[in-house]
Amino acid sequence: MSRSNSAVLSNPLFREPTLMGGVTHEIEFRDAVRDAMSEEMRRDKRVFLLGEEVAQYDGAYKVSKGMLAEFGERRIIDTPISESGFAGMAIGAAAMGLRPIVEFMSWSFSLVAADPILNNAPKMLYMSGGQLGCPIVFRGNDGAGGQLGSTHSWAVEGLFSNVPGVKIVIPSCAADAKGLLKTAIRDDDPVFFMESERLLSIKGHVPEGEYLIPFGHALVRRVGTQCTLCSWGRPVNFCLEAAEILAKEGIDCEVIDLRTIRPLDLPTVVASVRKTSCAVVVDQSWSFASPGAELASQIHRHCFDDLDNFVHRVHSDDVPTPYSSKLEQEYLPNVRKICEAVRSATYRA
Amino acid sequence: MPIEITMPRLSDTMEAGTVIKWNVKEGDAVKSGSIVADIETDKATMEMQCFDDGRMAAIVVEAGRQVKVGTLIALVALEGENLAAVKALANAAKSAAPTQASAAATSATKSSNDSTSPVGAPASAVTQTETRHGMEGFPAENAVDGDGPRMRASPVARRMAEDHGLSIQSIQGTGPAGRIIKRDVEQALENRSAAKSASTSSATHATLAPAQALAVSTSGVQTASSPLALALPGRDVALSGMRQVIARRLVESKTTIPHYQVTMKFDMDALLELRASFNTKLASSGVKLSVNDFLVRACALAMAEHPYFNASFAGDHVRVHSVVNIGVAISLPEEKGGGLVVGVIRDADHKSLRQISGETKALAEKARTKGLTVQEMSDATFTISNLGMFGVEHFTAIINPPNSAILACGAAVEQPVVRNRELVVGTQMQATLSLDHRVIDGAMAAQYLASLKEFIEEPETLVI
Amino acid sequence: MMATTTPSGSGANSTHGAARKLPALPSTTLTKWLREMHLIREFEVRCMQSYQEKKIGGFCHVYIGQEAVAVGCTAAVNLEDPIITAYRDHGHALARGMSSRACMAEMYGKVGGCAKGKGGSMHMFDRPHNLYGGHGIVGAQTPLGAGIAFATKYEDEVMNAGRNRRVTLCFLGDGAVNQGSVYEAMNLAGLFDIPVIFIVENNGYSMGTEISRGTTMSHELTIKGRAHGLKEATIDGMDVLAVYHDMHELANWCRENSRPAFVDMKCYRYKGHSMSDPRKYRTREEEERHELNDAIGKFERTLLDHAVVTDASIKEIMNSTREEVRDALKFSNESPEPDMSELYTDVFVEPWGRFTGSSLPEFMGGAANACRFHATNGKEGLV
What we know:
The complex is a heterotrimer.
Chain A lengths: L5 H4 L14 E5 H15 L3 E5 L15 H5 L4 E3 L4 H13 L3 E8 L7 H7 L3 H4 L9 E5 L15 H4 L6 E3 L4 H13 L4 E5 L7 E5 L11 E4 L4 E5 L3 H14 L4 E5 L2 E3 L3 H11 L2 E8 L4 H12 L9 E5 L8 H7 L3 H11 L4
Parallel strand pairs in A: 2-3, 2-4, 4-5, 5-7, 6-7, 10-11, 10-13, 13-14
Antiparallel strand pairs in A: 1-8, 6-12, 9-11
Helix pairs in contact in A: 2-8, 4-5, 9-13, 10-11
Chain B lengths: L2 E4 L9 E7 L6 E2 L4 E6 L4 E5 L4 E6 L6 E3 L3 E6 L5 H14 L5 H11 L12 H11 L19 H9 L18 H21 L7 H10 L7 H5 L9 H16 L2 E9 L1 H14 L8 H12 L8 E3 L4 E3 L5 E6 L8 E6 L7 H16 L5 H4 L4 E5 L18 E5 L3 E7 L2 E15 L5 H16 L2 H4 L1
Parallel strand pairs in B: 12-14, 14-15
Antiparallel strand pairs in B: 1-8, 2-4, 2-7, 3-6, 4-5, 6-8, 9-17, 10-11, 12-13, 15-17, 16-17
Helix pairs in contact in B: 4-5, 5-6, 10-11, 10-13
Chain C lengths: L15 H5 L6 H26 L14 H10 L6 E3 L4 H7 L3 H8 L17 E2 L4 E4 L6 H19 L8 E6 L6 H12 L4 E7 L2 E2 L2 E2 H4 L8 H4 L4 E6 L3 H18 L3 E6 L17 H9 L2 H11 L5 H24 L49
């Protein structure tokens, strides 16, 4: 499975959820996110949650359901619809040493808070010469798929991953969401944690007991020999589906779930591509200047003499997100597009 | 189908050649074996022979022009072929895309019409993006540059071909615009081993496609097995690319170079003592000098006085090299397919023991894991083969062309030695030079060994 | 001069009489304020000079004319009360206690600067003195200021289960009053009972635009705070005694009640918005009229009247500040430029997190991977 190093393995908190064994519970993605927040809030009083409708309404997507009852209104804080204000406020609090979790109902709304989250959070440490950091987590729904129209369907990683100083986490399943969010809350740097509205109700097996998943630690979700599929977040699930279809055609795909795109676990990708000589990157952001473009470029650089074809990429189409369900499904990086890309990359088109 | 004559590779380092003179005119009859042209390589002027009977239909590269190895330089029309038609073909090739074996050329034309290239493909997730935003307005993928058609091969295909000693030009590409891809190389390798067993059993190439035939003739292994051997029970092991190269080069060496051997014994006590003391001192910095490192340096330093040991026989002259690059024979483990490569310590006469040791170790390690690059294996001017670590006391080696000598070193063993008329226990090593008599005479060999003896028995001189 | 009582009738007001009366403070404290005001002015004059000599790069905004605000406000609160401000920040840094060496060297881009030369003129950070920047984007510091105050309150009340005991001063210019983030910050502060004071240093101009041309209700700016339920005050920022008196009272009120406030701090900058401002939007006569009301001159006269200082001691103060700034310039000149490795430090506390993954840092290009290794130091690539 995933490559490991001794430093990680020697940390008793790090356990790969798929390898933990023991009792697992089948819970929804949103429950996993809540469990991570609740566990960390029980453990550390500096942690608090703020955002629109997180308290009395139990969360716009019910992610924070029941948390107000447990932690009270001083730590589960309903904010007005005022992203620039409360994001900035949380950053100020983080600079003082608190560990806020800011919920954006949608990452699309974070754009009105672009100045604090891009100009203050990731730069405070550098501009103060190391005097002040910003241990904060921003989290919320990211990506299209729910017929929300273009303004509400942003995959902001395409924009934000360009900024140095942030860590970007995009889990693809419940177990990862829990382990990665716990790591994010304990991290001393700003973390952008991107969930998918389309994944919130998807159930997954989450092991009992505490575990944290380190950043920059990709997981090989499917072992294969002929083509490496690299993705993160919701499209990982499409890749797995595509891999099954392709297997029937005799194309054996390896599927790598990057989990975090900053930091980016290149060694796992490179080792895989050196084996398969073929790579397809699947990224739900738009293609131009995207994280997928960065990963493809890195693969070209590190695997140049190992490639049998240029790295193919599957993105959302280069248009504003359409409302129509039919158009929206076509717009997204879907199973069909992934299959086509793999066939083309392996010269089976 | 006319016969294509391409610029032959007439030396191991030759990348391009110049046609000095054509010995035939267009229209002349040629016979297999006749010398049709003189070619100047980077080292010498060589004769180029024709391998088929026919008529010289077209001279594509005139005398005086230099072209890359593999470039089409002439066409020979076989019996019954229309001379003018072949000539016209040559002219077309000259103006559009002068070069190349027919297989690659025709396949390039053919596959450019295929819809495998992204440009012509039906809209898909990938191609949509590429065509809409990336490919519009770009020349078609099979466009050629001024110097001739580009060799299209994926990076991994190039690497695999090189690793297996396969000429990439000889492979037919099936990717977009005739790009040679991984599975083409795999196919070619499969064909080659099939061809190999076919040629050993029936001794004919008739069944092979032209591309594979070329590959085989390039590697040039055509050893006939004795009927007895074939009759006995056993199993056939296909030759790896490396094994083929070894077979070809060493047959060539042993059959064309007038070998002879000269052996000398060296007292090793002083050297071993010095080595032990260095290694104790350098242990903390991870340096561990081997006897071989001392030998590399000794051989390199001795070149100053004996330049002909650092030379190559080149037909009508001897080339004395001005750099000293010592090759070290490295055997590869069985699980890696076995075999033998020569790693090269460049400018060894200017390197310290420590540098030599480090480089040798790195080369050996790389050879046994990832494999050495061509660069790391080429340009040796003298070679050392050492079997001392296996307990061998004495052996002789075959010269590694185009070197003029190779040193075969045995183990340093304790044995009775007479010193100052007394019998004592001393450690001695036997070293045997194999020499090219066209370059080096026996007395010269003795003098070289004497110089080596001095360095080895007074090893401090190696440190200075 | 300007003294109004707020409609809510808070105690935060000032009159001529109050200003002329000295507070019950040791004379050494008053002398210290005078020295700080002189230091800021001398420092800023030398800044202008250094800027013109190209020793200071980028943007540079000097504080000349507004010294009483920074000195009076910082004197009115405790060191543990955080301060955050905008880009005209040298005065606040010096008043808060940052050494003139660290402040000047920062502008020189030298390693002796408060942020090792990585922040520059607009971004003065001094954690030991609870100065949280120095922020270059107009208005951006206001939500952060609310957050800093939120944190002090959270720490006092939630984590330590006690009472709020700190107040945060968040400075902004009158130009920032038109930024949306300021209103969001005030709304949140009002909503969440955050003990923060938004001090609008109203010098009458946002860059080159006179306040009434850019801001509605500029004759009654406090209405902006009132709209969000903030306690309001209008203070004469050209009178350090008024600033101290009114701010001291207001800060204590905010601390006690854990509530925010809004201050229209009337003042005037003698120089341009930045070093490249020709000040064509106002007349020289207007500037001279304001210079007659100079805060330093006025404070000196009051201190002389009350025999706290003498002409000789003022001279001595001026000499010592001149000497201090000269030393700061010398220090900044001589301080080395940051080591190239500094380019890659302080990007992350832990680039790969405390739970490091399998990746090797050298895989990422540029500074992204950053804190403790040199991504481009001849170690690129895999092999």
